[in-house]
Amino acid sequence: MIKHGVVSLLVLAATFLLCGWLLPGMTLQGGLLGVLWTTVLFAVVNLVLGGFLRTVARPLVWITFGLFLFVINAITLKVTALVTSDLQIHGLGTALWAALIMSVVGVAVRLVRRHTARSPQQGPAEA
């Protein structure tokens, strides 16, 4: 369980770095510690505020077939940027792109995790 959480945080930190590299309107500062701090802070904001927003906006999420979740993730990113000086996000458009990238990476990680959990370790081929 702890291993899963640590791996998730490291993947999220790598995703923050990827977004900072790809998106000109997103800047990460503070070096490695700044990225790790931003990652942990985002995880907490996403857990508390994101959970609340997903609950309140559930009808909008259903009506938009889940696309409103990108807006909720963008809002949590902007709130994280407001709380820490290690993350700057210029504009809602940049936050939406970052939310999209983070969602794609999250889905890819879940697919890999599910695939590795299902497939048993195979030994050498027997003749």
Keywords:
two-stranded antiparallel sheet; single chain; globular; 127 residues; mainly alpha
Task: Give structural notes.
The chain crosses the membrane at residues 7-26, 32-53, 60-83, 89-112. It comes from Streptacidiphilus cavernicola. InterPro entries: Phage_holin_4_2. Keywords: Membrane, Transmembrane, Transmembrane helix. The protein has 127 residues and is mostly helical. 76% of the residues lie in helices and 5% in strands. It has helices spanning 2-22, 31-56, 58-63, 68-83, 92-118, and strands spanning 26-28, 87-89. Strands 1-2 form a two-stranded antiparallel sheet. α1 runs antiparallel to α5, α2 packs across α4 (68-83) and α4 (68-83) crosses α5 (92-118). The longest helix is centred in the C-terminal third of the chain and has 27 residues, at 92-118. The mean pLDDT is 89.
Chain-wise SSE layout:
Blueprint: H1 2-22, E1 26-28, H2 31-56, H3 58-63, H4 68-83, E2 87-89, H5 92-118
Antiparallel strand pairs: 1-2
Helix pairs in contact: 1-2, 1-5, 2-4, 4-5
Summarize it.
Keywords: Membrane, Transmembrane, Transmembrane helix. By secondary structure, this protein is mainly alpha-helical. Helices cover 76% and strands 5% of the residues.
